[in-house]
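Researcher: Batch entry, complex prediction.
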Amino acid sequence: GAGVSQSPSNKVTEKGKDVELRCDPISGHTALYWYRQSLGQGLEFLIYFQGNSAPDKSGLPSDRFSAERTGGSVSTLTIQRTQQEDSAVYLCASSHDRVQAKNIQYFGAGTRLSVL
Amino acid sequence: GESVGLHLPTLSVQEGDNSIINCAYSNSASDYFIWYKQESGKGPQFIIDIRSNMDKRQGQRVTVLLNKTVKHLSLQIAATQPGDSAVYFCAERETGANSKLTFGKGITLSVRP
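Model: Structure tokens for the complex:
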């Protein structure tokens, strides 16, 4: 597609369940990022991929959160044993090679996760 | 710790007036700055960027100003339109970092008809 695609757009789950969020980056973009946005807040960095490797996982809030990327394209963010505080919009972005001096990140519309 | 922040949480302007959205940053190692616009239910959309070797950059109806002396970034929108109503975020990237952007909390721009 022309832009970053995320699915599902909305996800309602029960506390304790696992969820998987998917991100399809812009074709040809080697870098991929996950962010979390709580209501009325800015964007909280979670993890960054360059190709299939994740050189920066510093933003993952706990070991319940993990992410992978395969084929240098699609990425999934998995949250295990969801908690109510995990409720937020999860945004994915992609960009060209990270070493460029200017590296504009393009965002998807996000997945709104609600943990009941 | 170092952070990116915005001076005002909300800004209300009359349609047709110019808008100025301000952002303070504290990381002197940042070399690249971006402004994003986020409309309700959508992801952030790139507006304009500026590198630290510049102090001004103009786009279509928007201008970004960078004052490295006082670590201040601003976004100016000319002839504000109802479609400009959104939340605006500034973001910075630290030199040598892996392109991780640090975002401010955002400011809501509301355009009065």
